[in-house]
Amino acid sequence: MDLKQVYSLPRDEAGYGNIRITADSVNLSVEFEHWEGGQNKLGLIKFLDLSAFRFYDEMQSDFEGDLSDTIYEVVDSPWRKQLLATEPENIHGVKDKHHFTVFLSNNGCLEVIAERLEVAQSEDGVRSHIPTSTSAR
Description:
The chain is mainly β. Helices cover 7% and strands 50% of the residues. Strands 1, 2, 3, 4, 5, 6, 7 and 8 form an 8-stranded antiparallel beta sheet that branches. A hairpin with a 2-residue loop joins β3 and β4. The longest helix is centred in the middle third of the chain and has 9 residues. The two termini are 20 Å apart.
């Protein structure tokens, strides 16, 4: 299982504060608090055209090494293959999507099957101040 780096999140030496994961039938969003340059900031990762996700403690990860605070694409993903094998014909929900994983320090690991992702950040830690996202894939 190879990993390809997609995006480096802002590093917080103390680890991230609270995270909030929300999902609807199409997208999944992760908000995360972090400290940068003496200010509290709020980051946002949006996974668009979602097919599946799972979340677990950092210690339960199958991935090796320090992957903290970075979004990776899992190349040749066994999980994606498993989902493809059980997907009904003509649905194509997983076929053209990517397996992303992100390790949020002090919180856990999130794995997502989605078409693409976007990343954004507020400069003052206020949710309503998060600008239009920047596409990362």
